[in-house]
Amino acid sequence: MAASSVILVLLAVALGSLLLVWWARQRPRARSVCVVVLGDVGRSPRMQYHALSLARRGFDVTLLGYRGSKPHDEVLSSKRIHILHVYEVNRIPVGPRVFQYGVKVVSQAMYLLYTLLLKTPPVDYILLQNPPGLPSIVVCWAVCCFRGSKLVIDWHNYGYTILGLTHGFSHPLVQLAKWYEKLCGRLSDLNLCVTNGMREDLAKNWNIRAVTVYDKPASFFTNTPLDTQHQLFMKLGHTYSPFRASTEPLDPACERSAFTELNPRSRKVTQLDGRPALLVSSTSWTEDEDFSILLKALERFEQWILDGANLPSLVCVITGKGPLKEHYGQIISQMCLKHIQICTPWLEAEDYPLLLGSADLGVCLHKSSSGLDLPMKVVDMFGCCLPVCAVHFQCLHELVKHEVNGMVFMDSEELADQLKMLFSEFSSPDNRLKQFRKNLMESKQLRWDESWERTVFPLFTQN
C-alpha cells in the first residue's frame, strides 16, 4: 500500500512537471530576449550594445546583471529594456579554497536558476556573456530547455584562461573549468565570438561553430568639439589637479584649464600654446594588464625631457576600476616626476567618450589571457579617431594595424621609443600623431548598430 502511494505521488509530480513545461512553452509572448551578464552591467559595454540593438528592432529585453557602475543613458531611457539587478554571491571564508569555490558555484547556480525562472518573463532567447560561464552556461541551458527558449553564447574570451592567470594553468580548478566550458559550450543553439582567431579555435578544438561579431564603437564615440573639451576639462579640474591651469590668464574674466581657454566675450575656445599632451589609458586593473610597462616608459620619457629633448609635458589619465588599482596607485604615488602628471579617475559613462575624443594618444596594456580576444577600449578609441599604442598579442592584428592606425610594442623600452617619436614636434601640424588620426578619420569605420544589423540581427530572425 505504501509503495503504491509513493508511486502515485511520483506519477503526480512527473505529470505536474510535464504540464508545467507544456504551459511554459505554450505561453504567448512577444519577441523577447534575456541578456545575462554575471558581472557589472555598467562595465559590460558590448552586452549593453546588444540590448540596445535588440530593443531598437522591436525586442523586449531583460538585462540581468550585477549592480555597480551606471549603464549608459540610452540603456536607462529605453522603454523596451528592463534592467534586473542580481546580487553577487561571495565565497564563504570557511574551509579550503576549493571547498569555498565549490560552495560559491553551487549557490550562484541556484540563485541564478531561481532568478531566471521566477523573476524574468519567458523569452525567445537567452543571450549569455561568457566568461564567466561557470555556472551560468548550464543554468541558462536548463532554463531554455524548460521554457522552450534558445541559448546564444557570446564568447568574449575563455573563462578558464582568466582563472589560469591567478592559479596557473595546471591547477585542478583551471582544468575543471576548461572541461566544463568545453563541454557545456556545445549546449548552445547559436554562438557569437569577438575575433576570427577565436572562431577558428572554437571550431578546431571545441567543435563549436561561431559567428565573428567584431566589437565596433557606438555612435557616441567620436571626436569631441573643442568647446565640449573645455567644459569637460573644467569639470574634471574640480576633482583632479592635472586638468587645472598651471598659470592664471592675463584677463581675469577668461576661463582656463590645463589645455584650453575660453574667451568670455567671444565665447571662443582655443588650445593653449605649450599645453601638455593628453595620454589616456583605460583598464579593469586585472592581471592581464601589466601597467608597470607604461610606468617605466613614462619614467624614461621624463628623463628625455630633463636631458633637453623637444618633448611636451604629459598628463596621463588611467581610468577604470579593478582589484589591482590600489597596488598600482601606491607605485604611482612614489614616482618622482616633474613633467608628467598621472591621475586614475573613474569617469561617468557620458564623460568617458568625451575624454577619448579629447586625447592625443591612447595606450592599451591589455594582453589577452587566451590571445584570442580584442580590447574593447581600443575599439572605443578608434571610434574617437584616437591613435593607439597597444601591447602585442596573438590576435591584435585583427584590430591594430602597425604604423597605420597606431603602433604595436613588446615592452616598456619599445613603448618609450614610440612615445618619443609620436610626441616629437608635438605642435607641428603634420606630425606622426596627426597622420594616424587622419588615417582613422578616412577609414570610415562601421559603427556598432550598422555592423550588428549585418551580422547578428539575421541570426535572431532566421532561428
From TrEMBL:
Keyword Phosphoprotein on entry: yes
Pathway(s) annotated for this protein in UniProt: Protein modification; protein glycosylation
Annotated Glycosyltransferase subfamily 4-like N-terminal domain residues: 51-211
Function (record text): Mannosyltransferase that operates in the biosynthetic pathway of dolichol-linked oligosaccharides, the glycan precursors employed in protein asparagine (N)-glycosylation. The assembly of dolichol-linked oligosaccharides begins on the cytosolic side of the endoplasmic reticulum membrane and finishes in its lumen. The sequential addition of sugars to dolichol pyrophosphate produces dolichol-linked oligosaccharides containing fourteen sugars, including two GlcNAcs, nine mannoses and three glucoses.
Alphabetic keyword roster: Endoplasmic reticulum, Glycosyltransferase, Membrane, Phosphoprotein, Signal-anchor, Transferase, Transmembrane, Transmembrane helix
Cellular compartments per GO CC: endoplasmic reticulum membrane
Domain Glycosyl transferase family, residue spans: 265-426
Family membership noted in the UniProt record: Belongs to the glycosyltransferase group 1 family. Glycosyltransferase 33 subfamily.
Annotated Pfam families: Glyco_transf_4 (PF13439), Glycos_transf_1 (PF00534)
Main localisation: endoplasmic reticulum
EC numbers on record: 2.4.1.142
Name of the encoding gene: ALG1
Protein origin, superkingdom: Eukaryota
Reaction(s) catalysed (UniProt annotation): an N,N'-diacetylchitobiosyl-diphospho-di-trans,poly-cis-dolichol + GDP-alpha-D-mannose = a beta-D-Man-(1->4)-beta-D-GlcNAc-(1->4)-alpha-D-GlcNAc-diphospho-di-trans,poly-cis-dolichol + GDP + H(+)
Record lineage: Eukaryota, Metazoa, Chordata, Craniata, Vertebrata
The protein's name in its UniProt record: Chitobiosyldiphosphodolichol beta-mannosyltransferase
